[in-house]
Design a protein that fits this description.
Helices cover 27% and strands 28% of the residues. With 355 residues, the protein is an alpha/beta fold. One of its GO terms (cellular component) is cytosol.
């Protein structure tokens, strides 16, 4: 008869499919080498997987129940002497991963914190979790709710798959892009600049399971004339975990408020404040520029409300053609006097036109 697989799983020979699965789950979690540090746990873990591999397969179980299986032979075969041989595939971890739908259910529940005790980048010291597999509070009962209680990881009637399929076919998913606003002055857009941003992120250690926190400087090159809303993306510079691809980090350009100018595409707008006298009698207004020059702007005609003057080529560089620039648009704000003397009012009545 060879090994008594029913005894290995601690069940009766007449146990049904559900009882076999339940027994395997309990025993495999109890003797998993990541959980059980006893030197003999590894061999016991393999023996449990071998027993489950035979008893969970109806054909193998039928042969085992009728004739027994001799370990160490070739593929199962039969003959006149009723001599059947069976070779376990030899990877109990693959059986375990196929049953639970992952390389380790401990990682599903506790992630990297099981070995290092880190949560959200804060180190809480080394710790481990003691779990009572026999009690009703067994947290791994949750696998039933998540669909991990079927044969080889499937629900009843869903078919079979290769024991190692779930390990090799699972693909990591990438977290959503992490977006930050980057405030930039109009002078920096005018000249172009490089911003240095320090980020703190989590990275996997060489063991592929525990994590560390590290700082990194990202150099963000702001090109001349870039528009507000331009996005600069740094691929996969976010947090890294055993189950996730690091997120991209993106910076969205936003204009800083300016004491003199506001942006209108590649144009900049400047508001010149003049008196009523200057608006009526003429004046010269000194207009500042983004490169710290001053341009005299003669106003020889009457400046009416809503008058706009344009200084060609004195705005921001065009993003796709930085050698060319937009315009500096001058809008006027006319300051009216708070009061005027009676005699001045009479003079104005006499000399100002009615229309």
């Amino acid at each position: 008869m060879g090994k008594d697989y029913y005894r290995v799983l601690g069940i009766q020979s007449g146990s049904n499919e559900e009882e076999i699965k339940k027994a395997y789950k309990k025993m495999a979690l109890k003797f998993h080498p990541d959980k059980n540090k006893d030197p003999s746990a590894e061999d016991k873990f393999k023996e449990i997987a071998e027993a489950y591999d035979v008893l969970s397969d109806p054909k193998k179980r039928t042969i085992y129940d009728q004739y027994g299986l001799k370990a160490g032979g070739g593929s199962s075969s039969g003959g006149q002497g009723n001599s059947y041989h069976y070779t376990f595939h030899g990877d109990p971890h693959a059986t375990f991963a196929s049953f639970f739908g992952g390389s380790s259910p401990f990682d599903i529940f506790f992630g990297a914190t099981r070995t290092r005790g880190t949560t959200n980048g804060f180190d809480h010291g080394d710790q481990d979790m003691d779990i009572d597999m026999d009690g009703e509070d067994d947290p791994f009962n949750a696998f039933g709710r998540f669909g991990f209680n079927g044969i080889n990881g499937f629900h009843h009637g869903a078919g079979r798959r290769h024991p190692t399929e779930s390990v090799h076919s699972r693909r990591k998913v990438q977290d959503p892009t992490v977006i930050h606003e980057l405030r930039v002055s109009l002078e920096e857009i005018y000249h172009g600049c490089t911003k240095r941003m320090k980020i703190t992120r989590r990275r996997l250690n060489p063991d592929g399971r525990t994590m560390r926190t590290e700082d990194k400087i990202l150099n963000i090159v702001i090109k001349r004339g870039w528009k507000e809303g331009t996005k600069i993306t740094f691929p996969k510079e976010g947090d890294e975990t055993p189950d996730k691809i690091p997120a991209d980090i993106a910076f969205i350009i936003k204009d800083k408020s300016h004491p003199h100018f506001k942006r209108d595409g590649s144009n900049v707008v400047y508001t010149a404040k003049i008196s009523l006298k200057e608006a009526l009698c003429g004046c010269t207004v000194n207009i500042p520029t983004l490169d710290n020059r001053v341009i005299p702007l003669p106003c020889t005609e009457i400046v009416k409300p809503g008058t706009v003057k344009r200084l060609r080529g004195e705005g921001l560089p065009f993003p796709k053609s930085p050698t060319q620039r937009g315009d500096l648009i001058v809008e006027f704000q006319i300051r009216f006097p708070e009061r005027i003397a009676p005699q001045t009012r009479e003079i104005l009545k006499q000399h100002l036109p009615l229309c």
